[in-house]
Amino acid sequence: MTRFHDNLVGKIVTDSKPAPPVTPALTQWGLWLLSAMVISGVALGMMGMDPGGSLMALPRGSLYIGLLFAGAGLAAWEAISSSLPGREKGMIRKGISLFLLVSVYAFPFFLLNGGCHSFDPWKEFVEGWACFRAISLLGLVPWVLLGWWLSKNASFHPFWSGAWSGASAFLLGSLTVQLHCPNLEAGHLWMAHLLPVAFFTLAAGWLGAAWFSRWRKKD
Amino acid sequence: MPLAPSKNKNSSQTPKSPDPWDKDQWVSWEVLMVKIQAGDPESYRQFLDEIGPVLFNFVRRRVFNQELVPDVYQEVLLTLHKARHSYEPGRPLGPWLFTVARNSMLDAMKKNRRFAEREVPTETLPEIIRENEDSSLNDEIHLALQGLPEDNRVAVELLKIKGLSLEEASKQLGISVGALKVRAHRGYRELRRILTEKKP
Question: Of A80, A90, A137, B190, which is most buried, counting CB atoms within 10 Å of its CB?
Fold first, then answer.
């Protein structure tokens, strides 16, 4: 066993090159948050906020916006910490994050006054296609940015790193569009604002499973 | 691997075994990790020699099939090497180290399970190839051997031509018996394919 260990150590040490440490997790998160706010600000500047201010006029409108923002920020933190060994936390923290995301989906129906008079999923999807497309495009840039950072880490849970990064980026896109879109019907919010978040969360997880495990195949 | 503590307590030359419960030990390893990230090979060697017994025991206690322990331990060290950039200086080393060890151990065991489902290394190996009376090896087999990847060729030569036992051959190559069986099995399979293709 000693000879086996010595041979192995000899090979590893011969191969050793400098490996600069990753940017600290808090710094990664802070930088991403800053860039997310800049991207949102620029997008909102181009699209313009809802002139009627219908969301903010609702008693819980600001709460919903806060929920979207908190969800995006927490999902970004989950993405970063899941990609750094020793940073992953236990089930309680993950449970809180999941609860927050479920709340985002429940909120339009239970707590926004827009209500849901009749729900035709396909009709809502077709009529809300412009919002769906806007969120998909707006989420791409923060997603690529976050993905670039995560690829420099060392994720042992590449699917989850990808999924959380998708959830974060597209929640941010949803938040930006939410401030612009005057339609507060629950059906519209689900099919046009939140469905792209769910779709891209899964897609990002699937892509992340391949992309964020590349570091293990490097020599 | 560091030596076991000498019974002569007055000996000043006895190297100190790493104590994973000693906080100062972990602080010194954290310092070494920073040097490793800077590319210092001597610090790297010292770190791996000191952390080796800790990781080996970690693996040994969790792997049911003891024959797999060296392969899993190797996988753990190699993954540690690839992930060394992900340790954040200033943070505790323990959670990082054992997360890397646990996850790479689980992946190594999954790979071995998949291997066991697809390939069955035989316990009883074919008879040793006897050399002809004039000491010339069958040319066809010799040529076929040259067509094998080096790892497989050496395994077959040690076992079938030199007639070493599994333990002797594995010691000579510095690999586990299980890994040797895998190499030899693949070598036989490839030899069979080469020799079958050559037949009219």
Answer: A80
